[in-house]
Design goal:
The chain has about 210 residues and is of the alpha/beta class. Helices cover about 35% and strands about 15% of the residues. Keywords: Ribonucleoprotein, Ribosomal protein, RNA-binding, rRNA-binding.
Length: about 210
């Protein structure tokens, strides 16, 4: 698969051959769904907590005598059936993460890249090098290039000036190649990858 390479100023910078094993697959929604679900579950805080019967602050004295009242038998007022009593089998802090094989996660990333390529939402940029960290300049450039909600993936390290310039632009996310993931790729309208990013992804996923 061949794609044109552009510069940040919109000019052409030749073309690049993309690996079919990364960008030429037929995207499968079931694979993408499983990987995204794994990512979101791992990111979930799991700090939900309630007070159980042994946690609420009440006296443990029997609230009234066992027999002769005509009412039901009760002991502590901490019981879940009473107002302000403990919660029965409520949520406790735990991890929501579940296992997903490393090979399957890599396959999901390949399918995400292929999905963007097939939809025509993949853009290859020569380099992200900027002389100065100017947010206004980058915002104007993104508008001229038609970038609306984009994820930009660079090589092992991202140009520092570019990161600073993109920091205050809500519609631009920037990641190094090792940070590339299925959820962030799919949630943005366009995927922009540098030539260094392509090389790094090919080395990572082969």
């Amino acid at each position: 698969m061949k794609l044109d390479v552009i510069k940040l100023d919109g000019g052409k910078a030749g073309s690049i051959d993309l690996d079919e094993a990364l960008f030429g697959l037929e995207p499968r929604a079931d694979i993408l769904h499983r990987v995204v679900r794994w990512q979101r579950a791992k990111a979930q805080a799991g700090t939900h907590s309630v007070l159980g019967k042994s946690d609420v602050s009440y006296s443990t004295k029997k609230i009234y005598r066992q027999k002769g009242t005509g009412g039901a038998r009760h002991g502590s007022k901490k019981a879940p059936i009473f107002r302000h009593g403990g919660v029965y089998k409520g949520p406790t802090p735990r991890s929501h993460a579940h296992d997903l094989p490393k090979k399957f996660r890599a396959l999901g990333l390949r399918h995400a890249l292929s999905a963007k390529a097939k939809a025509g939402e993949l853009i290859i940029v020569d380099t992200l090098a900027m002389a100065e960290a100017k947010t206004a300049f980058l915002a104007k450039t993104a508008k001229e290039l038609g970038w609306k909600r984009v994820l930009i993936i660079d090589g092992a390290e991202v140009n520092e000036n570019f990161v600073k310039a993109a920091r205050n632009i809500e519609t631009i996310d920037v990641l190094p190649s090792m940070g590339a993931n299925v959820y962030d790729i799919l949630r943005r309208d366009q995927l922009v990858i540098t030539k260094a990013g392509i090389e790094a992804l090919e080395a990572r996923l082969k």
